[in-house]
Amino acid sequence: SYFQLVTTPLGSDPHPPFIITVENITERKRLEEVRRDFVANVSHELKTPVGGIVLLADALSQETDPATVLRLSHRILDEGDRLARLVTDLLDLSKLEETELHQIHDVNLNDVAAECIDRYRLGAEARGIKLTVDLDAQVPLVSGDRWQLSSALSNLVDNAIKYSEPNSEVRLAVKVLATTVQVTVSDQGIGIPARDLTRIFERFYRVDADRSRATGGTGLGLSIVRHVIENHQGSIEVTSTEGVGTTFTIALPRVEA
Ligand code: ADP
């Protein structure tokens, strides 16, 4: 724990009496540390693709062999892509941190789920992964920001596909419960080791940084999801078995019927 002594003069005489208070600044210190780590991480994450692009472009400018020119161009595109994704995720995250919800409506989670599946179906099929959806016939309304909820579901489905092998299934289910609407995203993918389960919601935390980068991950997806769920007074849980699969379960308070 950290403490700080604060001296407060009483009155404005040249030599006023004063009181000394002891403040517990542990939480402030912790937040400062989180912020510092974040800035260091962001700098590191940005430097890698930027550095790559500069080196590759330099090589490209001196290259005449058409096949090599093509190969270098594609690698520059990949790095540029990664940079763009990182910037988008960082902007999303900073928007989400203003915890106020600006656009509050009754949101039908069936629609959000169906839209999300539409967005990913072709990409998943191209990788040999079957995307299925199981909606609730009862209208599952929650109060919140549709853009945020859609980005949370998309991040979970994106991960489920990213960390799965061909010939497996990713399932998105929406279910109305007594006081909440439950959304589950399950996959039959590589799974998450038990020791990492509590940390995956931290910014930039990855179980396997190489694999995450190779699949285009920024390490920010689950922090975005966590923020969205917190902003909506919901909860999120994860269960996983390595080599068997992972299930994320979100519960959001229902709009009173
Ligand atoms: P990333 O951009 O690396 O996917 P996330 O914040 O979305 O970052 O996820 C953090 C880490 O959690 C990932 O790097 C990955 O190791 C692990 N992870 C997330 N979802 C899954 C999943 N469905 N199956 C296996 N591992 C996962």
Structure description:
With 257 residues, the protein is of the alpha+beta class. 47% of the residues lie in helices and 24% in strands. It has six helices and nine strands. It has helices at 26-61, 66-97, 109-126, 146-162, 209-214, 221-231; strands at residues 3-9, 18-24, 105-108, 129-134, 141-144, 168-176, 180-187, 235-241, 245-253. The strands form three sheets. It has a five-stranded mixed β-sheet with strand order 4-6-7-9-8, covered by helices on one side. A two-stranded antiparallel sheet has the order 1-2. β6 and β7 form a beta hairpin. α1 packs antiparallel against α2 (66-97) and α4 (146-162) runs antiparallel to α6 (221-231). The radius of gyration is 23 Å and the shape is globular. The two termini are 47 Å apart. The mean pLDDT is 91. The structure holds adenosine-5'-diphosphate. Adenosine-5'-diphosphate binds at residues 159-160, 163, 187, 189-192, 200, 205-208, 212, 217-223, 246.
Say what oligomer this is.
single chain
Fraction of residues in helix: 40-55%
Intertermini distance: 47 Å
Strand content: 15-25%
Biggest sheet, spatial arrangement of strands = 4-6-7-9-8
Question: Could you give a short account of the major beta sheet?
Answer: 5 strands, mixed
Radius of gyration: 23 Å
Order of helix and strand elements from N to C terminus: EEHHEHEEHEEHHEE
Protein name: Sensor-like histidine kinase SenX3
Domain Histidine kinase: 41-256
Keywords: ATP-binding, Kinase, Nucleotide-binding, Phosphoprotein, Transferase, Two-component regulatory system
Main location: membrane
